[in-house]
């Protein structure tokens, strides 16, 4: 048995390698054919979309001319031609020509046309002209008019002409066939680019009187072929069945200079050796699909020829050349490496296998028999006399199998046997997965919503929150973020996951600014609805976090965990309404793009060092975003207003009362001078004087402090949780602006 194992190991490995390569290669080549078919269909569809809309437009023009041939002899008709021209971006010129030589046209004017004729005004973007009929004789002229924006005229001139439109191929074809005519491409003398000519006959009273024509630029089709490839190095060419090149990914090769004259390249002379070789081999009866090697690179190419569907006005076909290495190249390289590894390992294997196979095979057979018995729960039969081995690992395996056998047999007495049998037979387990990635976390929370919610019915609370979250979720999605969870009246989102995003920090900050601006705009709508105003604070932090599917086999959700998430929540806890605070790491990522005040430092629970934060003011970029100060509505009072302050220590209101003077006041907060010891982020109650000995107390948070002389300081505080009535009275009080004013509390 040992000798057989040694002899079979090498052929089996080689067979597995070859079989795997054959099967995988076949699957990949099948994918190649699918990609080629997809590219071919897309190319045909794009070509049809290039011609069909123009053909429809020409039919309409021909119909209009047939019903009233004299219409196009008037200036009013150029508006109709202009609309036809602008109906599709591929139309370069559209015109109506009559049998008596009369011709009217509207064209686009680009830089190439302006260079071709110095008489064309540099500001011109559109051109309209008409040519007198043959009755004008030697005085027959072309009357040209130029426009910058239609129909504003910027220039005009006349020139003698002997042009006879009737000799053009598409005119002759339309007249001969009585249907749509499409010519081979040729070079537009004005632009130097290949164009396609279309014509549709005008029949009046059963008599051919002229045709409606259009020039189509083929550059759009070439650009499409360049963007849509079957593989990174494949080329798709549209050809006039062995003749002119209709479209080619490199449009520069589509035009050739022959004896100083520009011409459309043909299959026989295009500067693409592989394309020419593919056509040569096709003529050797190799069929429409075959493989050949490139004469330039030596790489294998797949050639696929396919004619356009019947009914298409020209005998076009697609030619797709695809390097097979684009699909199987990596597989070949891996297989070559595997062959080398197999040769080396096999040489070592031969020595080791022969020496250990006899000592291993018999104990392993015993273990295998026991494992098979466990799969079928055949515990009745004894495993028999085991052949013990001196190889430590196998001896441990034998002991382990014995213990597992005994454990399974015992476990079957506690659980239904069918369940245990299924687990033992399948051995499969669902595995949850996650990975580490740099992301930007955004945490936001409403300020004072709990108090406001107590005054609303439960249904109103749900309606207000749903409206709030709907707005935020839409903004987060628009900036490429993902809402991880809704936490009461707060929200946690992440940018840079699940889909990785290079600019996740900028997206998060831009989204935070727009969230605050949207919140303020929606508050004005809330007033009309009778809903309380909402204020929101936002914290943003960037760092490495663990992202992925988390939970249990019963319930799985996408989660984001790690210090950056916790820190974003801590930063958010320091914010006031209308404010966005970002961490040092987010500011470093955005660098000069972010304009922010700071740094601001504070200690937080669970964070060993003080947190450095920055208050966002402006985000530079394509569309700069600016966030006003949380106390941007302050009005200077003519005379200071005396108030009292009570600092909050944690969740408790301090017993000490300090005197202060408000020098600026608004509905959002105040600027005051005081001797009360305070620091940024401190919570403090501001007590205003009232009539009849009453007091009005406003919970607020310090957002800026400036130390003055003699223990005095100037501080900016932001009020929180104010309703519409309180805001209105504060605004009125700031407008009254005198120290004797009193505040009437809202009942």
Task: Give the helix/strand layout.
Layout: H1 2-67, H2 77-85, E1 91-98, E2 103-108, H3 111-116, E3 126-131, E4 141-147, E5 153-160, H4 169-177, E6 181-182, E7 186-187, E8 194-204, E9 207-217, H5 219-227, E10 235-239, E11 245-247, E12 255-258, E13 261-264, H6 273-286, E14 289-293, E15 300-307, E16 317-323, H7 325-375, H8 392-411, H9 417-426, E17 434-447, H10 449-453, H11 458-478, E18 481-487, E19 490-495, H12 504-529, E20 535-551, E21 556-561, H13 563-573, E22 579-583, H14 584-590, E23 594-602, E24 611-619, E25 625-626, E26 635-649, E27 652-653, E28 658-665, E29 669-674, E30 683-689, E31 695-707, E32 713-719, H15 724-736
Parallel strand pairs: 20-22
Antiparallel strand pairs: 1-2, 1-9, 2-3, 3-4, 4-5, 6-8, 7-8, 8-9, 10-11, 10-16, 12-13, 14-15, 15-16, 17-19, 17-20, 18-19, 20-21, 22-24, 23-24, 24-25, 26-27, 26-28, 26-30, 28-29, 29-32, 30-31, 31-32
Protein described:
There is one protein chain. This protein is α+β, with helices and mostly antiparallel strands and 747 residues long. Helices cover 37% and strands 31% of the residues. The strands form five sheets. Strands 1, 2, 3, 4, 5, 6, 7, 8 and 9 form a nine-stranded antiparallel sheet that branches. Strands 17, 18, 19, 20, 21, 22, 23, 24 and 25 form a nine-stranded mixed sheet that branches. It has a six-stranded antiparallel barrel with strand order 26-28-29-32-31-30. Helix 11 (458-478) runs antiparallel to helix 12 (504-529). The longest helix has 66 residues, at 2-67. It is flat, with a radius of gyration of 41 Å. Residues 412-419 and 738-742 have low confidence and may be disordered.
């Amino acid at each position: 048995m040992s000798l057989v194992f040694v002899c079979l190991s090498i052929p089996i490995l080689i067979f597995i390698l070859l079989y795997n390569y054959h099967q995988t290669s076949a699957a990949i080549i099948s994918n190649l054919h699918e990609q080629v078919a997809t590219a071919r269909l897309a190319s045909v569809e794009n070509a049809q979309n290039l011609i069909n809309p123009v053909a429809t437009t020409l039919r309409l023009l021909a119909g209009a001319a047939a019903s009233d041939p004299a219409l196009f002899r008037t200036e009013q008709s150029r508006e109709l031609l202009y609309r036809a021209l602008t109906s599709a971006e591929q139309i370069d010129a559209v015109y109506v020509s009559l049998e008596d030589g009369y011709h009217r046209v509207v064209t686009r004017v680009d830089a190439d046309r302006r260079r071709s004729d110095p008489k064309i005004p540099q500001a011109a973007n559109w051109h309209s002209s008409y040519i007198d009929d043959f009755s004008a004789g030697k005085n027959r002229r072309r009357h040209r008019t130029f426009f910058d924006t239609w129909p504003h005229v910027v220039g005009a001139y006349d020139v003698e002409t002997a042009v006879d439109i009737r000799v053009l191929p598409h005119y002759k074809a339309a007249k001969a066939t009585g249907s749509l005519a499409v010519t081979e491409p040729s070079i537009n003398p004005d632009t130097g680019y290949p164009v396609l000519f279309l014509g549709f006959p005008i029949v009046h009273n059963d008599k051919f009187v002229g045709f409606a024509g259009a020039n189509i630029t083929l550059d759009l089709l070439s650009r499409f072929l360049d963007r849509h490839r079957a593989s990174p190095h494949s080329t798709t060419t549209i050809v006039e069945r062995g003749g002119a090149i209709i479209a080619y990914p490199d449009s520069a090769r589509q035009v050739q200079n022959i004896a100083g004259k520009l011409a459309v390249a043909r299959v026989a002379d295009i500067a693409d050796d592989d394309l020419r070789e593919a056509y040569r081999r096709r003529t050797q009866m190799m069929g429409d699909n075959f493989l050949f090697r490139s004469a330039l690179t030596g790489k294998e190419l797949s050639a696929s020829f396919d004619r356009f569907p019947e009914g298409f006005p020209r005998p076009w076909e697609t030619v797709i050349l695809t390097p097979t290495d684009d699909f199987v190249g990596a597989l070949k390289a891996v297989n070559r490496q595997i062959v080398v590894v197999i040769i080396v390992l096999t040489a070592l294997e031969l020595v080791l296998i022969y020496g250990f196979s006899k000592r291993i095979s018999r104990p392993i057979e015993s273990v295998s028999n026991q494992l098979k018995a466990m799969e079928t729960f055949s515990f009745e039969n004894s495993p028999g006399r085991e052949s013990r081995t001196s190889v430590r690992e196998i001896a441990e395996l034998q002991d382990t199998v014995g213990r597992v056998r005994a454990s399974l047999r015992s476990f079957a007495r506690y659980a239904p046997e069918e369940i245990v049998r299924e687990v033992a037979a399948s051995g499969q387990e669902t595995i949850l997965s996650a990975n580490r990635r740099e992301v930007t976390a955004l945490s936001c929370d409403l300020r004072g919503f709990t108090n406001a919610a107590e005054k609303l019915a439960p249904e109103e609370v749900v309606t207000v929150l749903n409206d709030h979250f709907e707005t935020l979720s839409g903004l987060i999605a628009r900036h490429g973020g993902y809402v991880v969870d809704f936490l009461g009246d707060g929200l946690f989102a992440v940018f840079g996951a699940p889909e990785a995003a290079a600019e996740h920090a900028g997206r998060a900050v831009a989204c935070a600014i727009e969230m605050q601006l949207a919140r303020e705009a929606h508050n004005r709508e809330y007033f009309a609805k009778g809903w309380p105003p909402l204020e929101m604070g936002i914290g943003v932090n960037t760092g490495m976090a663990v992202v992925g599917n988390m939970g249990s086999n019963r319930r799985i959700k996408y989660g984001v965990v790690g210090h950056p998430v916790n820190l974003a929540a801590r930063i958010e806890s320091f914010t006031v309404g209308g404010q966005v605070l970002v961490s040092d790491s987010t500011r470093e990522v955005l660098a000069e793009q972010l304009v922010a005040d700071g740094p601001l430092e504070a200690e937080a629970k669970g964070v060993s060092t003080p947190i450095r934060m920055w208050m966002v003011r402006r985000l530079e970029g394509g569309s700069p975003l600016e966030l006003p100060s949380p106390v941007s509505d302050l009005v200077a009072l003519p005379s200071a207003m005396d108030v009292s302050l009570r600092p909050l220590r944690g969740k408790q209101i301090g017993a000490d009362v300090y005197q202060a003077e408000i020098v600026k006041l608004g509905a959002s907060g105040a600027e005051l001078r005081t001797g009360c010891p305070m620091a940024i982020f401190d919570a403090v109650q501001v007590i205003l004087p009232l009539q009849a000995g009453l007091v009005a107390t406003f919970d607020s948070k310090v957002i800026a402090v400036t130390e003055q002389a003699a223990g005095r300081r100037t501080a900016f505080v932001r009020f929180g949780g104010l309703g519409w009535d309180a805001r209105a009275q504060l605004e009125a009080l700031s407008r009254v602006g005198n120290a004797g004013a009193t505040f009437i509390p809202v009942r």
